[in-house]
Amino acid sequence: MKELTYAQAVCEALDEEMARDENVVMLGEDIGFIGGNFKCTVGLLEKYGDLRVKDTPISEQGFVGMGVGMALTGLRPVIELMFSDFLLVAADQVINQMAKIRYMSGGQANVPMTIRCPIGAGRSSAAQHSQSMQAMVAQFPGTKIVLPSTAQEAKGLLKTAIRDDDPVLFLEHKMEYNKKYQIDDEVEPIPFGKARIAREGTDITIAATSSMVMKSEEAAERLAKEGIECEIIDLRTIVPLDTETIIESVKKTGKLIVADEAHERCGIGAEVAAAVADEVFYYLDAPCGRVNNPNVPLPFSPALEFPLIPSADKVYEKVKTYFK
Fold it and tell me: Which ranges carry the Transketolase-like pyrimidine-binding domain (predicted)?
């Protein structure tokens, strides 16, 4: 075991995959000389050179489109967007080109490409740099969507993303980058579509994404002292979504909460609740619950921002409503 920050674990995954496969290349704003806005690419320019680690202009549509072209020629580009909000700037390339080429070519062409970008609030980045875009992009077929929780998960899942023969959106929570974790000395790729039981329990299921896994674990520690045992599922990926693990847990607990930092409306919580209602409705003792950001833009002021962000306290309070 060793101690790494989340950002260092991401950097290690990139380094190891670039060493493993000379077709892995990187594009993004400030990923070279600066080492990335969140220091996830430190040292890679010096190690692999500027033909494989390319600083780009501030033109997301341009360099994402360039990545699509590179992938079509046999390279495996890893694109870094400074914030997930900028997926909207590159939306045509992401939604209409990258995601659809395999379908539109009848399988004759594929796009082995990964887009990494930070999600989440908590740094006073305001309404245009704090969004969690996972629910929106999940609407469009053709792209896998990954939401790693810990540093170990980020490293293993990123390796899988880079080796995938189809496009992957890899969404990293910006508030995790500087946190330190114990991770294995050697981390193997983690399969997509297979959730992780982060904590076993018998009273209620909490299906969580990204940093909400750790917040749910914190809430579960408090709840355990009150005799409520939470089972926490780290979804890992929402496309593909491991409904089987969720359903088996709900059969045991009879209750479900989905914790995700995206806005509540049309979010992953609604999708998971619908899947559970379709398959195991009569196992439910109560309606499915959600812990999300409310449906308002995120403000700059910390005094306004922090009350909106889903927290361990909000997970705790939501669980308590099931045990009055």
Answer: 4-179
Reported as a single tens digit per residue, the pLDDT across 138-177 is 999 999 999 999 999 999 999 999 999 999 999 999 999 9
CATH of domain 196-320: 3.40.50.920
**Beta bridge pairs of residue 182:** 3
Query: 2-183 is classed in which CATH architecture?
Result: 3-Layer(aba) Sandwich (3.40)
At 265 the pLDDT is 94
Cα separation, 272 vs 246, in Å, equals 8
Q: Are strands 53-55 and 24-28 parallel, antiparallel or unpaired?
A: parallel
Question: Out of 129, 153, 172, 305, which one is annotated catalytic?
Answer: 129
60 is catalytic: yes
Encode pLDDT of 2-50 as tens digits. Answer: 999 999 999 999 999 999 999 999 999 999 999 999 999 999 999 999 9
For the chain, the structural domain boundaries read 2-183, 196-320
Phi-psi region of 319 (alpha: psi -120 to 50; beta: other; left: phi over 0): alpha
